[in-house]
Design brief:
globular
């Protein structure tokens, strides 16, 4: 898999790319030793019957209309890498739990849309009027001011994440 040096224009194009091109191997180096890792993307298209509320960004709505949930860049050898993108139902449940457990960090307009495999980082979309659509990565023990702002939209995040072949490009 080669790096993508272009931005995919829309969510449909991104989903098509993930379906067709997201199974690959790459070499990694750990403690001076080189090894191969295998990755794949899983897109679950079974639909939920739901109404997506209007205060969710359009690119995320479109994704959920095409794909119920997904696992991107899953490490198929060790199961310790990848990103779970939740279904809308899972996202609402996870958002509620995080707001209840961490009320000083999560705000009412936050929507937890995913979780990184192998750690406890969460993918969050800010649905507030001031920061509508911004994508953050919440850290399990750090306060909100220390979270990463990784993209201005879900589409931009997916483009960057795909271009980085599932690497945490913000670290």
């Amino acid at each position: 898999l080669e790096r993508i040096w272009r931005t995919m224009k829309n969510i449909e194009e991104i989903v098509e790319y993930l379906e067709k091109e997201c199974n690959f191997s790459k070499k990694n180096i750990y403690k001076g030793k080189e090894f191969q890792m295998n990755f794949k993307c899983l897109l679950y298209k079974q639909r939920e019957n739901f109404y997506i509320q209007s205060d969710i960004p359009n690119d995320l709505k479109k994704f959920w209309q095409l794909v119920n949930k997904a696992i991107l860049f899953l490490d198929t050898d060790y199961g310790q890498w990848g990103l779970k993108i939740f279904s809308l139902t899972e996202s609402l449940r996870e958002s509620s739990l995080e707001k209840e457990n961490r009320p000083k960090d999560y705000i009412n307009s936050d929507l937890v849309i995913g979780e990184f495999i192998g750690d406890s980082d969460k993918l969050v979309v800010d649905c507030s009027q001031a920061n509508f659509g911004k994508i953050l990565v919440s850290l399990p023990i750090d306060s909100r001011k220390d979270w990463y702002v990784v993209a201005s939209s879900f589409k931009e995040f997916l483009n960057l994440y795909i271009d980085g072949q599932g690497e945490k490009f913000w670290e």
